[in-house]
C-alpha cells in the first residue's frame, strides 16, 4: 500500500516510483483518486512522480524508431499500457536516477550522445542520457550544446525547451546557460525554456540558483514548485500548485495545455510541432482566450475545438489550416 506522511526525499522518490510503476500498468478508479490526492499534498510529490515516469520512458523509449514523439501519455481510466511501454515496478522502486541510468547504459538501453550538440526536429521529443549520469528531455525544435569538464558541467540552451534531471555531484556544478542567464544546480530536476528576450525556469525537484553571467550574487534561489521568468530585463518569480507544475511539463507527454492563453499564442505553440501550420484570419479572433488539453501533433483537432468554442470557421488546405 502507498501511504503519505512525513517523508524525506528518498521516501518520496520510492513512493513516486511505485506510483509510476502502477500507472504504467493501469490504475483502478480508487487508485487514481489516491494518486491525485498524494500528488496534491506536496509540490515535491508531483515533481518526483513526473521524474519517475520520465525514467520509465527513458528506459523503454530510448531506441524507438519513431522520431515524431517518443513520449507517450501515462495510461488513464484503467487502460492497460502498451506492451512496449511496460517497465517492471521492481526496477523503478528505490532506484536513484544515477543508478538507474548507470544500469541502463550497462544494458545498452540508452544511447549515449558523444557529439557536443544535440537537436530535435519539428515534432520530435528526444530523451537523452548524458555522460555524467544526468538525463535531459528536449522539446520540439530545440538545441543544446553539452560540455562535460572535470570541474563543471555546462549546457548551453541554444533554442527551445529542455528538462534536466541532474545527477548529484557537488564537486561539479551543473549549469544551463541561455543568453546572459545561468541556472546552477548540483542534483535536482528543472526545466528551462528559451524566450524571445529571456528565459523561464520551472523547478520540479530540489533547488536551483539563477544568476546573470558575471554577476556577483544570485538573482533568485528556486525550490521545487517555483517558476522564474526573466524577460526584457524584468524578473518575475512565483509558486505553482502541483497541477500547474504538471501542465508546464505536459509537452513531455506530447500534449499542450492551454489555460486561458490568447488563441494567437496557442497557435504559435502548436505550430512548433507541425508542418501543417494554423493561421488566424483576424487579430480579434487571435485575442480570444482558449482552454483545454490537446495533442501537440494534432493541429486539426485544436482547430476544430476552437471553431466550436469560439464560433469560428475552419478552412483546410494541404499545408495550412485557416481559422476565420
Automatic annotation (TrEMBL):
InterPro entries: FecR, Ferrdict_sens_TM
Record flagged with keyword NAD: no
Chain segments annotated as transmembrane: 92-113
Assigned keywords, A-Z: Membrane, Transmembrane, Transmembrane helix
Keyword Chaperone: no
Segments forming domain FecR protein: 116-208
Annotated PANTHER family: PERIPLASMIC SIGNAL SENSOR AND SIGMA FACTOR ACTIVATOR FECR-RELATED (PTHR30273), PROTEIN FECR (PTHR30273:SF2)
Protein name according to UniProt: FecR domain-containing protein
Organism for this UniProt entry: Novosphingobium album
Record lineage: Bacteria, Pseudomonadati, Pseudomonadota, Alphaproteobacteria, Sphingomonadales
Amino acid at each position: 500500500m502507498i501511504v503519505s506522511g512525513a517523508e524525506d526525499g528518498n521516501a518520496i522518490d520510492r513512493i513516486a516510483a511505485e506510483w509510476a510503476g502502477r500507472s504504467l500498468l493501469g490504475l483502478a478508479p480508487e487508485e487514481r483518486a489516491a494518486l491525485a490526492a498524494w500528488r496534491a499534498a506536496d509540490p515535491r510529490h508531483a515533481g518526483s512522480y513526473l521524474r519517475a515516469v520520465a525514467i520509465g520512458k527513458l528506459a523503454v523509449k530510448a531506441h524507438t524508431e519513431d522520431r515524431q514523439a517518443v513520449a507517450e501519455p501515462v495510461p488513464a481510466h484503467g487502460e492497460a499500457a502498451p506492451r512496449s511501454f511496460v517497465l517492471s515496478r521492481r526496477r523503478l522502486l528505490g532506484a536513484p536516477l544515477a543508478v538507474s541510468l548507470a544500469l541502463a547504459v550497462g544494458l545498452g538501453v540508452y544511447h549515449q550522445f558523444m557529439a557536443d550538440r544535440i537537436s530535435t526536429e519539428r515534432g520530435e521529443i528526444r530523451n537523452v542520457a548524458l555522460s555524467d549520469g544526468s538525463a535531459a528531455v528536449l522539446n520540439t525544435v530545440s538545441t543544446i550544446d553539452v560540455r562535460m569538464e572535470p570541474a563543471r558541467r555546462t549546457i548551453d540552451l541554444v533554442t527551445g525547451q529542455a528538462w534536466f534531471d541532474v545527477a548529484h555531484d557537488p564537486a561539479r556544478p551543473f549549469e544551463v546557460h541561455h543568453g546572459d542567464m545561468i541556472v546552477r544546480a548540483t542534483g535536482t530536476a528543472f526545466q528551462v525554456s528559451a524566450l524571445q528576450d529571456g528565459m523561464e525556469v520551472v523547478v520540479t525537484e530540489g533547488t536551483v540558483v539563477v544568476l546573470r553571467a558575471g554577476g556577483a550574487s544570485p538573482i533568485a534561489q528556486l525550490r521545487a514548485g517555483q517558476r522564474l521568468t526573466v524577460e526584457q530585463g524584468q524578473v518575475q518569480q512565483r509558486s505553482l500548485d502541483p497541477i500547474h507544475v504538471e501542465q508546464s511539463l505536459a509537452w513531455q507527454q506530447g500534449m499542450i495545455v492551454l489555460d486561458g492563453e490568447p488563441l494567437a499564442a496557442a497557435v504559435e505553440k502548436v505550430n512548433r510541432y507541425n508542418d501543417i501550420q494554423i493561421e488566424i484570419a483576424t487579430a480579434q479572433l487571435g485575442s480570444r482566450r482558449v482552454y483545454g488539453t490537446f495533442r501537440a501533433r494534432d493541429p486539426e483537432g485544436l482547430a476544430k475545438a476552437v471553431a466550436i468554442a469560439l464560433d469560428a470557421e475552419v478552412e483546410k488546405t494541404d499545408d495550412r489550416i485557416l481559422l476565420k
